[in-house]
Structure formats: structure tokens, C-alpha cells
Design a protein that fits this description.
5 helices; 4 strands; about 170 residues; alpha+beta; Ubiquitin-like (UB roll)
């Protein structure tokens, strides 16, 4: 698949890869350079349609070409999502940095409290991530961690709906 040469080719690529972002770990950071390029290209356009975008040339930089390749690879590596099981234990993994945040909701049939997280048989339910933009970049660490807590509540409501074990095991990665 060749690199996009205009915004009309880049736009559907980002739309289609974004559709799989719940299964792709770190998607927001991978796609960020491409999304920024599309946003800058389309800022001059009268409308954000594919027809208008096709007339806007895009020359990808080395960093954007790497992001394109990594985004395609993320689709190949996308994890298979499991369906929530009523008898499984929910596990939330969260992280935030200066650049972005992530929340991974998994389930495990039999939680072993003495075993390391890497040794658990986790099944992915959903993977959420994002980059901080605009004024969010100026937030302090406490505010960025608070963003994760908000996503925890949303993720729990999404994934644990009608789940007997609504009390999740939360692990924050430092």
C-alpha cells in the first residue's frame, strides 16, 4: 500500500484505522503525526469532504512515513477482543505521561494474587488511549492522572454492564 499523496487518500486511511483503535494499543500516539498533517492540510479547505481533500497535495515527512507504516502494523497486531464473562475478574491498567494517556480493560478467569501481572491469562475487553492537546498539555501530573480516573469510570460502565464482579482490580502503571 503506497504512501498517501493527497489529503483525500490520507483521510480514509485514518478513518479506517481509527475504527480499530479499541483493539490497537497506543494507536493515538502512532496516528498523531498523520492526524496533525491531515488537520493542517484541511485547515485551508472550504469543507472536509473526500472530494475537496483529493485536491490537496500531501508530502509526508520521514516521521509521518514511519507513523504510516506503524499504523498499518498496528492493524496487523491488533488484539482480539473478548466478550465480558460474568464469572471473570475485571482488571484495569492505566497510565499517563506528558504526551498522553491509556486505559486497558481486561478480564481474567482465575486471578492469582501472588502472580505477576504478566503471568496472568488476561483477555482484552477494550483499549482506550489518547494524546493531550491544546491546554491539556499544560496540565500537571495530578490533572493528567485524573483524566485516567474519569476514563476508568466510563470504561467500567461500558465493559462491566450487567457484570457480577463490577468491583474491578485496578493497577496503575507508574
Amino acid at each position: 500500500m503506497p504512501y498517501p499523496t493527497n489529503a483525500g487518500e490520507l483521510q480514509p486511511f485514518l478513518c479506517s484505522t481509527n475504527w480499530m483503535r479499541d483493539s490497537s494499543v497506543d494507536y493515538a500516539r502512532l496516528a498523531c503525526p498523520l492526524q496533525n498533517t491531515l488537520d493542517q492540510s484541511m485547515a485551508k479547505a472550504s469543507r472536509r469532504t473526500k472530494r475537496v481533500a483529493a485536491g490537496i497535495p500531501v508530502a509526508l515527512t520521514k516521521q509521518e512515513c514511519e507513523a504510516y507504516v506503524k499504523s498499518k502494523q498496528a492493524l496487523v497486531d491488533a488484539a482480539t477482543q473478548a466478550f465480558p464473562k460474568p464469572d471473570a475478574k475485571m482488571v484495569l491498567l492505566t497510565d499517563a505521561s506528558d504526551v498522553g494517556w491509556s486505559v486497558i480493560v481486561s478480564q481474567v478467569k482465575s486471578w492469582k494474587s501472588d502472580a505477576d501481572i504478566h503471568d496472568q491469562q488476561l483477555e482484552l475487553l477494550i483499549c482506550l488511549d489518547g494524546t493531550f492537546t491544546g491546554a491539556q498539555k499544560n496540565w500537571n501530573v495530578i490533572e493528567k492522572r485524573h483524566t485516567q480516573l474519569s476514563w476508568r469510570a466510563i470504561s467500567s460502565a461500558i465493559c462491566c454492564y450487567d457484570h457480577e464482579d463490577f468491583a474491578c482490580t485496578a493497577i496503575t502503571v507508574s
